Amino acid sequence: MWHRPSGDDAPRRQTTLSGMAERSAKSTSYPSPSGGSGPARAIGEPANLGRRFIALMIDWILCLLVSRLFVGSVSEGWAPLVVLIVEYTFFIGLFAQTPGMKLTGVRCVSVFTGGAPGIPRTLLRALLLSIVIPCLIMDDQRRGLHDRAAGTIVTGTPATGGPTAG
After folding, report:
1. pLDDT digits 0-9 by tens, 79-88
2. Where are the alpha helices (DSSP H) in the chain?
3. Measured between alpha carbons, how far is 49 from 37 in angstroms, rounded to an integer?
4. Which residues pair with 108 in a beta bridge?
5. All residues at 6 or more sequence positions from 135 whose CB lies less than 8 Å from its CB, including other chains
6. What are phi and psi of 32, to 5 degrees?
7. What gap in Å lies between CA 88 and CA 61, rounded to an integer?
């Protein structure tokens, strides 16, 4: 049975509407990738829609090939979709990129940390993506409803190396 301590040694919490609003704003807000200061610069600019679409097509072709190994025919419409959900959940959750994203130079990162979003978030993102409608409704940062719900953003891959000035 849960017991609440009483007396002078019991911690007292005073919850006010303004305190709850402050905590809520802190937990739901995130840095804008296009301006501002702080972690926003580490996340990067939103990825080009053309590169995102090409990455999705590459991943879809891979899903068709993989699902054919398990089902034997791509006429089973659910099989490639299940493979896509598993692929997106695993690769984005752990590595922030699917094979298609790697080839096109985009990645899907957490808006809170700038790193891989983790399995639970990307499972939610993949399930919503499979419905199609959430990804068609985008905000000014090119984040679909599936990205907003999962707390993710698709950005360009950061440059690693390259020519140096001098």
Report:
1. 888 999 999 9
2. 17-28, 40-43, 49-71, 78-95, 99-104, 119-131, 133-136, 145-150
3. 25
4. 154
5. 128, 129, 144, 145, 146
6. -75, 125
7. 13
Note if the pTM is more than 0.70: no
Half-sphere exposure of 49 (CA within 13 A, CB side): 10
H/E run at residue 153: strand 152-156
Q: How many CB atoms lie within 10 A of CB 103?
A: 14
Domains of the chain by residue range: 45-156
The pLDDT tens digits for 94-108 are 999 999 999 999 999
Nearest-CA neighbor of 108 among 116, 118, 99, 120?
116
Considering just the CA atoms, what is the radius of gyration of the chain in Å? 21
Distance of CA 140 to the CA centre of its chain: 16
Query: Please, are residues 137 and 145 in contact by the beta-carbon 8 Å criterion?
Result: yes
